[in-house]
């Protein structure tokens, strides 16, 4: 792949991610800026908890497909793992730091799940089932590991499970994509990531 084509691929991936569905749909249907609600993130979780659950489902589907597309295109173009991983991570970068929205986007977790699905659909299904079971459990229980709301608690624990499963995987593309994206997500939510890590350390001890 020529340098110009690589740059165009990465720019496309970033631009796709930067089209923030949570912000756009919330503004179109409710005339509200989702970033002024809840934790300030323009993503599925904040829409679910503070705007409308049906709209959150639509945002989830769009963000999931946004994660799938760059990986799918890169694989179909027979690009190397490194370029495809960069393309997928560029979409996460656009989602988390969209230029058109003042570099203030979402977490990128839904898009990351979409990217994982494009690489290993079975793993993505497993992670989704883990998340769904955790969400049901925390919705009907007062037990908390991170003192988050049920949806965020489920996301955090599923993310921890994903890290361990992917570390044990032999799929190079999956590892490169996941950990590049993870670095972006941690940078975007550094304090929350440190908090989750500190809680895990306490639990292990």
From TrEMBL:
The keyword Oxidoreductase does not apply. It comes from Caldisericum exile (strain DSM 21853 / NBRC 104410 / AZM16c01). This is Glycerol-3-phosphate acyltransferase. Its main location: membrane. It catalyses: an acyl phosphate + sn-glycerol 3-phosphate = a 1-acyl-sn-glycero-3-phosphate + phosphate. Pathway: Lipid metabolism; phospholipid metabolism. Its EC number is 2.3.1.275. Probably interacts with PlsX.
